[in-house]
Design a protein that fits this description.
The protein is an alpha+beta fold and 219 residues long. It has 7 helices and 5 strands. It has a 5-stranded mixed beta sheet with strand order 1-4-3-2-5. α2 packs antiparallel against α4. The chain is elongated and about 50 Å long.
Length: 219
């Protein structure tokens, strides 16, 4: 599937992003916004869903939303979601995008960077506070369909602040949730590390803090 023509270019200056601007506020939808298209037995991923009595694409999104949050044994192998009955934003959405690819549906996997804090990602606040950070740039995966951003890892009903801004986003292939995602995220952190908000921390230290945040989400 071709990348989105409207995918944003890498920002020329990251220092300007530090949440003083409020433009480009977006709406993030949940699985209900996915097309209710019947699944055809056209590939291994489609067959895996059909074998679990999931017969349409929207229901596939709902089933993924209902699975617990948790890292898979191989963070780049999205096929493990249905085997291990858990997944992250990366593996769940990569699996959904791979299913859409088999079904020839116009659903694209997206990679975005947003300012992660307790209000939009409950569970990370105590970790960030421990290091004196108000937020941390986090790489997040979701899908795009007919101009709508869709996140099946959230029900849309949580009493929390939704992700309403992305500092950067681009369309990627499901196979890019491993090394490519990590490299892009660390590239973003490398430039952010020099800012006053990051308190001159190294990328390695920021990455350790980020890993603590992810571990907190799985508890």
């Amino acid at each position: 599937m071709a990348p989105l023509s409207q995918a944003r270019a890498w920002p020329a200056r990251h220092h300007a992003f530090l949440y003083r601007q409020k433009r480009n506020v977006l709406t993030m939808h949940s699985w209900q916004a996915l097309p209710e298209t019947a699944l055809k037995s056209v590939g291994p991923i489609s067959s895996a869903f059909l074998a679990r009595a999931v017969f349409d694409f929207r229901t596939a999104g709902r089933c993924l939303q209902q699975l617990p949050y948790g890292r898979n044994a191989d963070r780049a192998d999205f096929s493990l979601v249905l085997i291990e009955h858990r997944g992250t934003c990366s593996t769940k959405h990569a699996l959904l995008a791979a299913l859409a690819r088999e079904q020839d549906l116009p659903v694209v996997l997206m990679l975005g960077v947003y300012a992660m804090h307790e209000r939009n990602t409950p569970g990370v606040g105590r970790v960030l506070a421990r290091y004196g950070l108000s937020f941390l740039p986090e790489a997040h995966c979701y899908v795009m369909h007919q101009g709508m951003r869709i996140d099946v890892t959230r029900s849309g009903a949580e009493p929390t602040e939704p992700i309403s801004q992305f500092l950067y986003e681009e369309a990627i292939a499901p196979e890019q949730i491993g090394d490519y995602k990590v490299q892009l995220h660390q590239r973003f952190l490398r430039e952010w590390a020099a800012t006053a908000v990051a308190a001159q921390r190294s990328v390695a230290e920021l990455w350790r803090i980020r890993e603590e945040c992810i571990a907190a989400l799985a508890q």
